[in-house]
Design a protein that fits this description.
heterodimer, A: mainly alpha, MetI-like fold, B: alpha/beta, D-Maltodextrin-Binding Protein, domain 2, 2 domains, five-stranded mixed β-sheet, four-stranded mixed β-sheet, 15 helices, 13% strand, ABC_transporter_permease (chain A)
């Protein structure tokens, strides 16, 4: 039947079908390495991680299936709950500050001038340095024997607890994270601000809108999708905060700056309960994904509501 | 079109071919002329990469055909590096700084049938179910208090008279009065470790089975002799003998502060001696056994130094065992390793500073060396949690709260 259909299709149609098949094969061939790489580097490790999280694997011997025990343990392990509290604080406070500061900075420097370009570069500069190095640099500045406290000591002033007082240490950590990361938001926001039509701003100005009103009612709503992207990126990035924690505070004092990722990498994986450590990592991945989806969905709903008005 | 198709296929297959080539090449470390032994070691300020390579060169000269290759662990522990290598199907031959447990013993070669292992230090204390999997070069002891001789003289204190915790506390008061910071602490891992060096000497001398009992739930931190030690520690913070700002110091910073005479006493292990020697301060520093609330002198909380295990999956097991035998029994290798980290071993001497000799005398007089291995090994992650709880004493926790926190954490891990 197929042969008959093919015969009746004629040489022209057969040729077209052949060309389409060749195109598909070429497309698949082009995609092949990328798909293979993605599968090997992402899909397989995630699959293996999910499997290991359901076992009691100690990293050495054969793993035994334990069902959801590791996930249940996540909620009765005091280290985990404490670390989530710290992580939540850093993620929320850090995101708000990074987005807010980035927005203010971008609005102030949106014009095209050499001075603005210089200050935009200054804001972005920490972002190109490894977070680990930034942490060590700030530890050398804020530590008990650091530059600030050494200077204070010369005037007979007791050392300030930037890194040894539990509340101060968390604030110092968030401040360094914000300083290191807000420049990226500035670049994003400045790029977005340049897409806002000039005639719209001129029209608003002619209608008597103040600068503040223009920014709040026109500019910020117009760059809202970019702000959403920055919020999601910052939030997800800060939930995984690790390198600055390691180099600046080492999770201390008294675990007051111990984030969930620090807990997974510095404590759980260093122990022998790899199954549990993997469950923590999978849980972190799920939380990050849910948060990212949640923020995007909220933004979409707001956009739809605005469009409906 | 045909050539384009060929190129596309080529592009797709090339990474696979390259990966296969790399995979085939990997693991063929047995050179045609001899054997390459891969050894995982920890690099420390005393045991540098150069030190190990020099030591391995000595072995290679006396064992033609064998090459010993140093495996660096990077930022992870030897234990984690071994796990990574095993998971990757690329086992090393020998590993250092790993203490086998009942769960992990099967990964290592049972060396019980090697008669030379019986003569290595603490071999039986580290045995698992009576079998020797780990052999070491010497011993480290850790229940020590180093002190600044000038500070003690100024405060009118005789170090030999400090035997109890109350006397220790009184000495701190006099040192503070003499204008010194009485006791040097630091952040990072140091806070918890110093507490362990202090409290374990008393608690584990009185009851060597304490950790095993804790595992069985028969004792707890909150209702044991650990609580009085937590109370002592907290009282030192409250009286200003311990400085909260020390939590912002690294291990190296704390050590330097003591060596520079900013503080009068420093609880640390015998591995502090090389740092004092290097700073040429050994003659200005004295040492005494950690005071306790019980017997004096107490047992020394200690551990095996330079512990070696042979990995069961090693492709060159016989050669690996031969290498470990050399590292732990050859007099030159032993002396070199002992001296590099100021470790100790009965029957072996090397040129020591006055401080090193004092530590040796303390070990000679110690009634026992308390080792945390086998059933006496705390659950994984305990040292981190202990560190967190001891630091919490500086940030407002009560001794009872810290003890409860330790119990709560321990229970959640079992």
């Amino acid at each position: 039947m197929v042969e008959l259909a093919e015969l009746s299709a004629g040489p022209k149609q057969r040729g077209r079908r052949g060309a389409r098949l060749r195109d598909s094969a070429i497309t698949l061939g082009m995609m092949g390495p990328a798909v293979l790489l993605y599968t090997v580097m992402t899909v397989v490790p995630v699959g293996v991680a999910v499997y290991l999280s359901l076992t009691d694997w100690d990293g050495f011997s054969t793993a035994a299936f334990t069902g959801l025990d590791n996930y249940k343990h996540l909620f009765d392990d005091p280290s985990s709950t404490d670390a989530w509290y710290v992580t939540g604080l850093i993620a929320v406070a850090g995101t708000v500050c990074m987005v807010g500061l980035g927005l203010v900075y971008a609005l102030a420097l949106k014009g095209r001038s050499r001075t603005n370009s210089f200050f935009r570069a200054v804001a972005y500069f920490p972002h190109v340095i490894s977070a680990l190095i930034l942490g060590y640099l700030w530890a050398a500045i804020l530590g008990t024997n650091g530059a600030v406290n050494n200077t204070l000591a010369k005037f007979g002033i007791e050392p300030l607890g930037f890194l040894f007082d539990e509340k101060f240490a968390l604030i110092s950590l968030i401040a360094v994270i914000v300083w290191a990361g807000f420049g990226f938001n500035v670049v994003l926001f400045v790029a977005a601000l340049q897409t806002v039509p000039a005639e719209l701003l001129e029209a608003a100005a002619i209608d008597g809108a103040s600068k503040r009103q223009i920014n709040l009612r026109i500019v910020i709503p117009m760059i809202a999708p970019v702000v959403t992207v920055a919020t999601v990126l910052n939030l997800v990035g800060l939930i995984r905060a690790y390198d600055i924690v390691v180099s600046l505070t080492g999770g201390g004092p008294a675990g007051s700056t111990q984030t969930f990722t620090y807990l997974i990498l510095a404590r759980s994986f260093e122990g022998t309960n790899v199954g549990y450590a993997t469950a923590q990592a999978v849980f972190l991945m799920v939380v990050s994904a849910v948060l990212a989806l949640l923020v995007t969905a909220l933004r979409n709903r707001q956009d739809q509501a605005a469009a409906g008005q | 079109m045909k050539s384009m198709w060929r190129r596309t296929c080529g592009l797709a297959v090339a990474p696979l071919v390259m990966a296969s080539a790399v995979a085939c090449g990997n693991g063929s470390d047995q050179a045609s002329e001899g054997t390459t032994l891969r050894v995982i070691v920890n690099i420390t300020p005393n045991l540098t990469e150069k030190y190990w390579n020099d030591l391995f060169d000595t072995y290679e000269k006396s064992h033609p055909g064998v090459t010993v290759k140093l495996e660096l662990t990077g930022t992870i522990s030897a234990d984690a590096k071994l796990r990574q290598d095993l998971a990757a199907g690329d086992p090393p031959d020998v590993a250092q700084q790993i203490t086998p447990t009942a769960d992990t013993a099967s990964l290592f070669a049972d060396l019980s049938d090697q008669p030379w292992t019986a003569k290595t230090p603490l071999a039986d204390q580290y045995a698992v179910d009576g079998k020797r999997y780990v052999v070491g070069v010497g011993e480290q002891i850790q229940s020590l208090v180093f002190y600044n001789k000038a500070a003690f003289e100024k405060a009118g204190i005789d170090a030999a008279g400090i035997r109890t915790m109350d006397q220790f506390t009184a000495a701190m008061g006099r040192l503070k009065g003499a204008g010194y910071k009485p006791l040097q602490a630091a952040g990072q891992w140091v806070t918890g470790s110093q507490f362990s060096m202090m409290a374990d000497a008393g608690v584990l001398t009185a009851d060597p089975e304490w950790t095993a009992k804790r595992k069985d739930g028969k004792v707890s931190f909150a209702r044991s002799d650990y609580l009085p030690y937590l109370e002592h520690y907290k009282s030192w913070i409250d009286k200003g003998y311990l400085d909260k700002s020390a939590l912002g110091l690294t291990y190296a910073d704390g050590q330097t502060a003591f060596l520079n005479g900013k503080s009068a006493m420093y609880i640390m292990g015998s591995f502090f001696v090389p740092a004092a020697d290097a700073a040429k301060k050994s003659d200005e520093i004295g040492v005494f056994t950690m005071p306790t609330d019980g017997v004096y002198p107490s047992g020394q909380f200690g551990n095996i130094s330079n512990p070696y295990v042979v990995v069961n999956k090693s492709r060159h097991k016989a050669e690996a065992i031969e290498f470990v035998k050399w590292a732990t029994t050859d007099p030159k290798a032993i002396k070199s390793q002992l001296a590099s980290d100021a470790n100790l071993r009965e029957g072996f001497t090397y040129p020591m500073s006055s401080l090193g000799s004092s530590v040796q005398q303390i070990l000679d007089k110690a009634p026992s060396v308390i080792v945390k291995s086998g059933m006496s090994q705390p659950v994984a992650g305990f040292s981190d949690e202990l560190n967190k709880q001891i630091q919490s004493l500086y940030t407002g926790s009560s001794p009872a709260g810290a003890a409860d926190g330790l119990d709560k954490w321990w229970n959640s891990q079992s």
